[in-house]
Amino acid sequence: MAFASIIRRSASTVAPIVTRLARGQRSFGSALFTALNHHVNISREHSVSFPSYYSTAAAKKPSNTESLLRVIEAEIQCARETDDHDRVEEIPKGFPFKIEDNPGEQIVTLTREYEGEMIKVLVQMPGLVTGENNDIGDDDDDNQKANQSSVPLVVTISKKSGLALEFNCVAYPDEIAIDGLSVRHPENSEDQFAYEGPDFHDLDENLRKAFLKYLEIRGIKSSTTNFLHEYMINKDSREYLFWLNNFKKFIEA
C-alpha cells in the first residue's frame, strides 16, 4: 500500500513537469518556425536576379565583321557606279564562233567547225595595263607589247582522227602573237613530258607568218580578238561584282 502511494505521488509530481516540457518544446518549435519563415521572406525580398548577358552577346556580330561588311558594301556600290558590269557587247556581224560564257567562270569558250575541223578557243581574262612607260622606246617591239592590254588565248584545232594542233596566243589591239604551238596525239594527250616543239620565235619568219595566216583563215584574226578584248573587260567587271556579292552573303550568313 505504501509503495503504491509513493508511485501515485511520483506520477502526480512528474506529470506537470512533462506537460511544461511539452509546452516548452511546442513554443520553441513555433518560435523556430516563425523565425525561419521570416528569414525566407526576407531572402525573397532581397534576392538578386542576374541578367543573361550571353544571349545578347552571342546575337551581336563582332565589330570587325560589321566593319568588313561596310567596306564590302562600299566596294559593291563603287563597282556598280564605275564599271561596265551591265554593258552588253554587240556581237559583230559574221562572227564565226559560238560563245559559251558561264557566270562565275574566268574563261569564255568559243567553238566552231571549219571544213571538218573542230576549233575551240579558250579566252582568258584580260591583262589590263594602265598608264604609259616613257622609258620604252618606239623601236622596241617587245617592250611596246608589254605596255599594252592583252587577252590570252588557247586555240585547239582538232581532226576527226584525234590529232590536234594547240596554239598558245596573246591577242593585242589589232595584232595576234603566237607564243608556242604543239601537236597533240590522242594516245598521249595526258603525257606531261611530250615534246612541245621549239620556241615559236626561233622558227623561220616565213613559217611564223604561215601559221598566223593558218589561224586567220579559221577566224582567229584582229577583228575577232578586238571584240573579245572588250567582251572580256566587261566580263571581268561582272565577275568582280558577282564575287563581291557572294563574299558578302558568306559574311552575313
TrEMBL record:
GO CC terms: mitochondrial matrix
UniProt-recorded name of the protein: Mitochondrial glycoprotein family protein
Protein's organism: Tripterygium wilfordii (Thunder God vine)
Organism superkingdom: Eukaryota
Pfam families referenced in this protein's UniProt entry, alphabetically: MAM33 (PF02330)
PANTHER family: COMPLEMENT COMPONENT 1, MITOCHONDRIAL GLYCOPROTEIN FAMILY PROTEIN
InterPro entries the record matches: MAM33, MAM33_sf
